[in-house]
Structures are given as structure tokens and as C-alpha cells.
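Crash report, auto-generated. Payload:
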Amino acid sequence: MTHHVRVRFAPSPTGYLHVGGARTALFNWLWARHTGGTFILRIEDTDRKRLVPDSLEDIQESLRWLGIEWDEGPGVGGPYGPYFQSERLELYHRYAQELLARGAAYRCYCSSERLARVREERRRRGEPPGYDRHCRFLADEERARLEAEGAPSVVRLKVPERGTTTVHDLLRGEITFENETLEDVVLLKSDGYPTYHLAVVVDDHLMEISHVMRADEWISSFPLHALIYRALGWELPTFVHLPMILDPTGKGKLSKRKQKRADGHVEENMTMVREFREAGYLPEALFNFIATLGWAYSGDREVFGVDEAIARFELEAIRKAPAVFSYEKLEWMNGVYIRALPAEELARRLVPFMARAGIEVTAEALLPLIPLVQERLKTLADAPAYLDFFFRDAEVPPPELLVHKKMDVESTLRALKAARDALAEVEWTEEAIESRLRQLAGELGLKAGQLFQPIRVATTGKRVAPPLFGTLYHLGRERVLARVDRAIELLETALSQQE
Ligand code: GLU
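Recovered output after restart:
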């Protein structure tokens, strides 16, 4: 008996990687890394009707982006392959045969019409959905006749009619199910593909999986799996069903629906890893955040690195209680990670986000601007809105935007003209620009904001922009003067129209 930890993430390529799936992958991976074990990626692609073409690529890319590399699986191979269930059909047939031979399964010849009828009748009688076990009790002659006719069939699990099945989950302890409530589920379909129930047991056993860590939605299938293990005479691995992930309200399972955020705005919940990536979350921040969904690094620290998580991760510390997915917390955490990046690295990571906004710029060109925005960015995708006016002409501001509180067109015009003269002469350093403009505000009898706001709007096209003096300095005198001139013209036109 080996004590080597072997764990797996077993996604079905039926959709893009969800954060819930990423959490499952991450916990398995942490456990493997913590113990020096092996992390396996296995693709459960037996439900042929539900396959989504590029989901396989998305799952792999999203895992890699998060830094979750697998030791065995697609692309890397390994001694327990193939790692695609669709390439393991023979194995499932062999064990389905074995279950039949041991009397733990039976062939069912029911047509889909009959099954639909049974479902409908059960529904009408208020019974739980399920199969009525018709073929379990077929007379031998009847069975022989159907076989001779070559009637299509599925293989079903023969669940004990009475008694209970008890299973053990590491976090929840023993869970006992009344066998009456369990269904004779299909193990092998008529198309020759196994169902999840058969394939998962066969593969976890043959791949020598030591710990099955999976979503808690599988708890209800757990007794069926236990019955299959026992029927085949196999030892069960350790099972750990991970806590559910709830949406920010804490009332429902995390899903795509629209919800109100703490600051009041309504947004569709992001759920796919690729959406967070596109929205400008750092993989290290998402990794950290996901690791806190059902596990805590310590009582008082929420921000921790990969190596720290690996060092501390323990299965017993996983919580049973559902975890709430807080977008605010993730955003906050992302800001923490953005602020911690070296400026060169942040510049490099911003390049694709600038490009997406139509601004082709190199990391070198962004680097001097990083100090202006690093403190303010919540996501990488925020950057173009802060920085676009450095790389293309600022939007022409509507005159009202130029006029600050307790100012009018006339006084703003006077202030801007004075600012223009000052900016034309001042020594071009951040400090000199700042002290000259502050001094000018005093000379004009204006509050700082009353002078600074029109300059900001004139040069950036926005009311909210990075710190003013650094912005002016990096824009350069020439562009600053040209944009101030344009604002002056705008105000002059507005004034003449007023008269
Ligand atoms: N293929 C299953 C899923 O995607 C895997 C469940 C398991 O880990 O056993 O949910």
C-alpha cells in the first residue's frame, strides 16, 4: 500500500473553466504540492452530446494561467494514461462486464419511450424521478430472447433494495443513505460510452487516486460510487467534498445572474476564469482569492503567496460551510497585488490591456507613467481610462466640464489664460510646475481646485485623472500648452455665445 498522494482534477469539457472548478483544481494541486504528491488532469469527455468545442483548450489555458500545472494528463502524458476518458472505453467495458458477472449490475433493454412513460407516471404519483427496475426482474427466457434479437441495452447498477449505504467524507464524517432512495443508475450507455458513475470509479481506482476532492454536488452520487467500489472489491480513496460557493448575497449558488454590488451598481456575476483574466485580474490575486474559498491561511491573514499556501495547506482545515464569493474582496485583493508589482512588470502586463483599448504602446513607453496609476488601479483593465490621453489626443471637453464649483466661464477663462502663461515659462519639472501653479492660485485669489480642475480637464479631457503635476510633466510642455489653448478657445466661443 503506497502512501504517495495522487489527486486529480477531472473536468468535463462541457464549458469554460468556472471559478468553482478552479477552486477544486487548486485545492487538489495544493494538496499534491504540500505532500510532494502527484496532481493529475483527467478529461471526462464521455457525455458526447454536451461537449463544447474550445472548452478543453480553455480549461488547460486557464489552469496554466493560474499557475496550476499538472504532473500527468493532456500534453504531459504519464504512466496511468490515457487521460481522456473517451480513449479508455475498453476499460469501462471490462469493468461493466465484471459487475454483470458479479451480479452487481444488469442489462436494461427499456426503450427511451418506456423510460419517458415511467418518468411521467412517477411524476404524476409524486414519486422521485427514477427507473422502476423493470429489467432487473426480467425472466431468463425474456432476457435471452432480447439478447438473441440484438436489442440495444444499457448496463445498470443493481442497488440493494433495502438497508442503508454508509460512506465516509473526511470533512463530514459518516453519511448514511437509505438504499430505497438510490436509483439503479446507468453505468454503460447504449452508445458504448460509460456514464460518470462508472468512469469515475474505474479511473480513480486504476489511476491510484488517494484523495478524491470534488464539488459537494457529488455527495448524492457518493453512495452509488461506494457500491461500485465495493462490488469490485476495491478500496475507496479518501473523499473530500468541497464546500459550495455562494454568490455575494450568500443566498444562492454562485451563478451568472445580475446582482447589486456593495456600492449599489448592478452587474452580471463573472464566473469564468477567462472573464476575470479579461477583466484585468492578476492570476496571483485570483489564485489567492480562490484559495480562501473554503480554506483559511490563518485567522488574520488573507493575502498570501503560492509557496505560503503550499506550506500550510491541510485537508482538515477545509471548511464545510459554504464560502461566499465577494467581488469587492477580490477587487481589493487585486489592488493589493497590483501595488506590489515592480513597475516594469506592471508596465509589461498593461500592454495588452492598452492594445485592447486601441492604444499600441510598449512597456518602456508606459514605464514612466506607472507611478501615476499604480496606486489607483483596481484591475489592469482600468489603465486605458487613466492613461489614454497620453497616447492620443485628449477628448475635447465640453465647456461645462471645464468650469469648477463657484466659477463661471469668464473666471475660468481668466484662470486658464494665466495658467497658460505660467506653464509656458516655468521650469519643466514636477516640483516647479506644482509650486508655480499653487502660487498662481494664490495670486488669482482662487482655491487650488478652482484652478487645477480646468487645467486637468483641458489636458486630459476628464474630471478624474492621475495626479495633476506628474500628468502635466509627462505630457510635456508642448502638448500641455496646445490643449490649454484649445480649452481657452472653447471657452471664448462659449462666452461669445452667451453675450
Ligand atoms: N467530470 C466531473 C465534473 O466535471 C468531475 C467530478 C469529479 O471530480 O469526480 O464535475
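Post-recovery validation: The radius of gyration is 32 Å.
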